[in-house]
Automatic annotation (TrEMBL), chain A:
Keywords: Heme, Iron, Lyase, Metal-binding, Oxidoreductase, Peroxidase, Signal
Cell location: Cell envelope
Name listed for the protein in its UniProt record: Deferrochelatase
Taxonomic source organism: Sporolactobacillus terrae
Task of the protein: Involved in the recovery of exogenous heme iron. Extracts iron from heme while preserving the protoporphyrin ring intact.
Dyp-type peroxidase C-terminal domain boundaries: 232-401
UniProt superkingdom: Bacteria
Keyword Oxidoreductase (UniProt): yes
Cofactor note as given: Binds 1 heme b (iron(II)-protoporphyrin IX) group non-covalently per subunit.
Domain Dyp-type peroxidase N-terminal: 67-224
Keyword DNA repair in record: no
EC number per UniProt: 1.11.1.-
From TrEMBL, chain B:
Residues of the Imelysin-like domain: 149-375
Species per Swiss-Prot/TrEMBL record: Sporolactobacillus terrae
Keyword Lipoprotein: yes
Subcellular compartments: Cell envelope
Pfam families reported for this sequence: Peptidase_M75
Key words of the record: Lipoprotein, Signal
Region (Disordered) residue spans: 28-47
Signal peptide (UniProt feature, chain positions): 1-26
Protein name: EfeM/EfeO family lipoprotein
InterPro entries hit by this protein: EfeM/EfeO_iron_uptake (IPR050894), Imelysin-like (IPR018976), Imelysin-like_EfeO/Algp7 (IPR034981), Imelysin_sf (IPR038352), Iron_uptake_EfeM/EfeO (IPR053377)
Protein family: Belongs to the EfeM/EfeO family.
Length: 414, 384
C-alpha cells in the first residue's frame, strides 16, 4: 500500500479488524479472485475531513433488499450503459469473476472510497482519480441482465437459460420507431447516477476498465434532470415527468418489485425498460402553448391533468383529447415507475437542429403487461409522436439487492 | 506499525498471494508436473515437431504447395499443444522457436506461401528444436534475466532496422526512377520493419518525425519529409515529380537511424514502456486509418506494431514466468487471438486488406482485441 494512500491513525480506527476481514472476504469472493487478479485491494479509509461539503459526502447504501438507484431519490446526473460479453468468454466462471469485481468496485465507490494503487509505480494506477476529492454524491450503481445474456441465436450461452426471468424477452417491434441497433439492447446493463456528473462518470469509467476482456462496452448514454427537492422534474418539453410515480412502499411492491412468480434469484428485483427518445425540439418550440398542453393532457406549469387544479389530482380521461399522451398511458390501467433523464448531444450537422431528448427509463415488475403494451399503444396513437422519434431500446432484468458478502447475480449461478 | 496497520498488511499480503483466477487454474502447465523422464512432454512434443518439420522440408523440396500449407499448420497445432511447458522451463529457447515457427504458420495461411521464406525459417527451426532437446533447465538471477531480455530485444530491433535499410534502398530507387507502380509495390515492406522498431527510432529526437511524420504532425508543409510525404505523392498525386530530394533524405535518415541504433542502450523499464507505446500507436493512429491515409495500408502497420511489442514480451518471458506465469499465459493467448483475427485480412507478406474496405464492426473487433492485449501488456510491469 502506497504511503500517500494511508490516512492518519485517527481515521484508521474507523475500521475494525472485523470490518477488514469482511471486506477481504468479499474481495476474495465465493470463488477465486477477479479475472485479472489485480486491483483487488480497496482503499479502505474514507475521507472524513470534507464534511463542509455535506451534499457531496452523502452516500446511498449499496447492499440491501433491493438494488439502489431505482426508488432512490432521483440524482441530478445519470449514465446508462450496456455491455456485451467478450466473444472469447464461454464459461460462467469468468463472468462470475467479473461480477465479483464489479460488486467490490461498486460497494467501494458508492461509499466514497476507491481502489488503492500498487506500490509498483511502473504499473498503471488502479483508480483513475478524478473523483478523489468529490465524495460519493449519492452515487448509485444498478446492474442488470439482458435477454441476449441468457440466449443468443437460440443457444443457452452460459448454462443459465433455464433460469431466465419470466418477463425477459427481446424487445418486440413497436410502431413509430427507427432504432439504431448499435445503441440498443446488450448482454448487461449498468445504470450509474450521482448528484455530481464527474462522480458518476468516474464510477462507470472504472467499471468499464475492469470489465474489458470479459464484457466490453456496447453503448453509453448520459443525461441530467434537475428539480427542487420533493418536486417532479421537468423534461425538455417543459412538462413534469414522473408525476404518477408511486411513493408508498406497498404500492412500490405492486408496481416495481418482482414476486413469487419469478425464479428464486430474481425475486425482489425488477425490470428496466429503456427508450432513447429523440425530441424534435424546433418543431415543438414552434407549436402553440395550447396545443402543447393538448398533446400531453396536462397543464404545462402546474402539471395538473385537464379539468383538475393540482399535479397529483386524479386524471379525468374524458377531459383530455383522445390522443393525449397522459390519457393513452393512463388508459392502459397499468403502472410503471419512471426514472428518466434528459440528454443533449450538440446539433445535428445536416439540419443545424438540436440533438436532444429523453433517456426514458422505467422500472416495473411485469414489463410484458405494462411497459410493452403501453409502448405499443403510444406508438400507434400518441399525439406526442409528431415531436418524437424512438431511436434506441432495451429491456433488462434487474435482480434483487445484493447482500453483504455476496455478489451481483450470485444466486443465478450458485 | 500500529496493530491495525499490521493486520491490514498481513491481510493485503494474503490477498495478493491468493491463487490466481478461475480461468487460469484449468490450464496448469505441463512443465510443473513432471521431471525430465523419458515421458517428458517437452521432449516428446519437440520430437513430434521435428518430424513435422522434416515433412515440411520434404514438401518444400517437391514444391508441393498443399503439403507445405498442411505441415506449416500442423507445426503450429503441435506447438500450441505443449508450448506452455516449454515457456515455463526453457524460456530462452521458447522465444527462439516462436520466432521461426510463427512466420511459417503465417505463410501457411496464405494462398501462395513464399517457399523461400518458409525454407529459411524451417532450417533455422531445425537447429532450434535440437537446441531445445539438449537444453538444461537453468534459472538465472532476476537482474541477469532482465539484462538478457534487453540484449535479446535489442538484437531483434537491430535486425528490424537492418531490414529497414535493406528494403528502403529499392523503394527509394524506384521513387528516384519516377516509377510510380514499382514504388507503390515497394512501399509497405520498409514500413513493416520501421513500425516494428519504432520505439528505438523515437529515442532519437528528430529522426522519428523526419522519417514517419504525418502531414498534421508538422507545423508547415515545408517541414514535412519521410515515408508519408512520398506516400501522398504516390497515391494522391500519382506522380513522383520533385520527390528525389525526399527520397534521398529518407535514405539518409534511415541510415543514420541504423548507425545510432547500433550503440543504443536501453533500460528494462524503457523496453517495457516501448512495447506499450507500440500498442498505443496501433490503438490510436492505425486503427483509425490516419497513419496511412493515402495508401490505406494501415493494417500492415498495425500488425507490425503488435509484432514489435510481442518481441518485448518474448524477451521478458524468463522474468515474467517467475511469479507471473498466469499473466504470461494470458498474454500469450491474447497475442494468438489477435494474430488469428488479423489473418482474416492478410493477403500476402506485405499486403493486408485496404483499411477503407473494413466495416465499422470489423474495425471495432480489431480494436477490442487490441485493447485486451494492451490491458494485459500493461501488467508486464509487475516484473519490476
Amino acid at each position: 500500500m502506497a504511503k500517500d494512500d494511508l490516512s492518519t491513525p485517527n481515521e484508521q480506527k474507523e475500521y475494525s479488524r472485523r470490518d477488514m476481514l469482511k471486506m477481504t472476504a468479499l474481495a476474495g469472493g465465493g470463488i477465486a479472485l477477479g479475472a485479472s487478479g489485480f486491483g483487488t485491494v480497496l482503499e479502505l479509509l474514507g475521507n472524513k475531513n470534507g464534511e463542509a461539503n455535506a451534499a457531496n459526502q452523502s452516500t446511498v447504501p449499496f447492499f440491501g433488499n433491493h438494488q439502489a438507484g431505482i426508488t432512490t431519490a432521483h440524482q441530478n446526473y445519470g449514465y446508462l450503459a450496456a455491455f456485451d460479453i467478450d466473444p472469447s468468454v464461454h464459461d460462467a466462471a469468468k463472468i462470475m469473476a467479473l461480477f465479483i469485481t464489479w460488486t467490490r468496485l461498486a460497494a467501494t465507490l458508492t461509499q466514497g472510497k476507491r481502489e488503492v494503487n500498487s506500490d509498483n509505480k511502473e504499473l498503471p494506477p488502479n483508480d483513475t482519480n478524478e473523483a478523489r476529492d468529490l465524495g460519493a454524491a449519492n452515487l448509485t450503481i444498478t446492474f442488470g441482465l439482458g435477454h441476449s445474456f441468457f440466449t443468443k441465436d437460440g443457444k443457452d450461452r452460459f448454462g443459465v437459460a433455464a433460469h431466465m426471468p419470466k418477463q425477459l424477452t427481446a424487445m418486440p417491434h413497436i410502431a413509430h420507431e427507427t432504432l439504431d441497433p448499435a445503441i440498443s439492447n446488450g448482454d448487461l446493463c449498468v445504470q450509474v447516477c450521482a448528484d455530481v456528473q464527474q462522480v458518476a462518470f468516474h464510477a462507470l469509467r472504472n467499471l468499464i476498465k475492469e470489465a474489458l476482456g470479459t464484457a466490453n462496452i456496447r453503448w453509453m448514454e448520459s443525461g441530467f434532470l434537475n428539480a427542487p427537492k420533493g418536486q417532479t422534474p421537468r423534461n425538455l418539453f417543459g412538462f413534469k415527468d414522473g408525476t404518477a410515480n408511486v411513493a408508498d412502499s406497498e404500492d412500490q411492491k405492486n408496481v416495481i418489485w418482482t414476486g413469487s412468480d419469478e425464479p428464486q434469484w430474481m425475486r425482489g428485483g425488477t425490470y428496466l425498460g429503456y427508450r432513447k427518445i429523440k425530441m424534435i425540439i424546433e418543431t415543438w418550440d414552434r407549436d402553440s402553448y395550447s396545443d402543447q398542453e393538448n398533446v400531453f393532457g396536462r397543464k404545462k406549469n402546474s402539471g395538473a391533468p385537464f379539468g383538475q387544479r393540482h399535479e397529483k389530482d386524479p386524471v379525468i380521461m374524458n377531459k383530455m383529447p383522445a390522443d393525449a399522451h397522459v390519457r393513452l398511458a393512463h388508459g392502459t390501467g397499468k403502472q410503471i415507475y419512471r426514472r428518466a433523464y434528459s440528454y443533449t448531444n450538440g446539433i445535428q450537422p445536416q439540419t443545424g437542429n438540436l440533438d436532444a431528448g429523453l433517456l426514458f427509463i422505467s422500472y416495473q415488475n411485469k414489463p410484458q403487461d405494462s411497459f410493452i403494451p403501453m409502448l405499443r399503444l403510444l406508438g400507434k396513437s400518441d399525439a406526442l409522436n409528431e415531436y418524437t422519434d424512438h431511436i434506441a431500446t432495451g429491456l433488462f432484468a434487474i435482480p434483487a439487492g445484493i447482500k453483504k458478502n455476496e455478489y451481483f447475480a450470485q444466486h443465478l449461478f450458485e | 506499525m500500529t496493530n491495525q496497520k499490521k493486520i491490514m498488511f498481513i491481510l493485503l499480503a494474503a490477498l495478493m498471494l491468493l491463487p490466481i483466477s478461475a480461468c487460469s487454474s484449468a490450464q496448469k502447465s505441463d512443465g510443473e508436473k513432471s521431471a525430465q523422464t523419458t515421458a517428458d512432454p517437452v521432449k516428446q512434443g519437440t520430437k513430434k515437431m521435428q518430424q513435422i518439420n522434416k515433412n515440411l522440408q520434404a514438401a518444400l523440396e517437391k514444391n508441393d504447395t498443399a503439403a507445405i500449407k498442411k505441415y506449416g499448420k500442423q507445426l503450429n497445432t503441435q506447438w500450441l499443444s505443449y508450448e506452455n511447458g516449454v515457456r515455463d522451463r526453457f524460456p530462452l529457447q521458447y522465444a527462439k522457436i516462436e520466432r521461426y515457427q510463427q512466420p511459417i504458420y503465417a505463410q501457411s495461411n496464405l494462398e501462395n506461401p513464399n517457399a523461400a521464406q518458409v525454407k529459411e525459417n524451417s532450417r533455422a527451426l531445425t537447429d532450434q528444436l535440437s537446441d531445445l532437446l539438449a537444453a538444461k533447465e537453468t534459472k538465472a538471477k532476476p537482474s541477469k534475466q532482465m539484462d538478457q531480455a534487453v540484449d535479446d530485444y535489442l538484437k531483434y530491433a537491430d535486425e528490424q532496422i537492418d531490414q529497414l535499410v535493406k528494403t528502403t534502398k529499392p523503394f527509394v530507387q524506384a521513387v528516384k526512377d519516377g516509377d510510380v507502380e514499382k514504388a507503390k509495390k515497394r512501399y509497405t515492406l520498409p514500413r513493416i520493419y520501421y513500425e516494428r522498431a519504432e520505439p528505438i527510432a523515437e529515442s532519437f529526437g528528430d529522426l522519428d518525425p523526419a522519417i514517419d511524420a504525418r502531414i498534421n504532425d508538422v507545423e508547415t508543409e515545408s517541414d514535412w519529409s519521410g515515408f508519408h510525404e512520398i506516400e501522398r505523392a504516390l497515391w494522391e498525386k500519382n506522380s513522383l515529380k520533385g520527390q528525389e530530394k525526399y527520397a534521398d533524405k529518407l535514405m539518409a535518415d534511415v541510415l543514420s537511424l541504423q548507425k545510432k541504433a547500433k550503440s543504443f542502450k536501453l533500460t528494462p523499464k524503457a523496453m517495457v514502456a516501448g512495447a506499450m507505446e507500440l500498442l498505443e500507436e496501433a490503438a490510436t493512429s492505425k486503427i483509425t486509418g490516419e497513419e496511412e491515409r493515402y495508401s490505406h495500408t494501415d493494417l500492415v502497420d498495425l500488425q507490425a506494431n503488435v509484432d514489435g511489442s510481442k518481441a518485448v514480451y518474448q524477451a521478458a518471458i524468463p522474468a515474467l514466468i517467475q511469479g507471473h506465469k498466469d499473466l504470461a499465459n494470458q498474454i500469450d493467448k491474447q497475442f494468438q487471438a489477435f494474430d488469428k483475427q488479423m489473418l482474416k485480412y492478410k493477403k500476402s507478406d506485405t499486403e493486408y486488406e485496404d483499411y477503407t474496405k473494413l466495416n465499422k464492426e470489423q474495425i471495432r473487433e480489431i480494436s477490442n482485441e487490441l485493447s485486451k492485449l494492451s490491458k494485459l501488456m500493461a501488467q508486464t510491469a509487475k516484473i519490476f
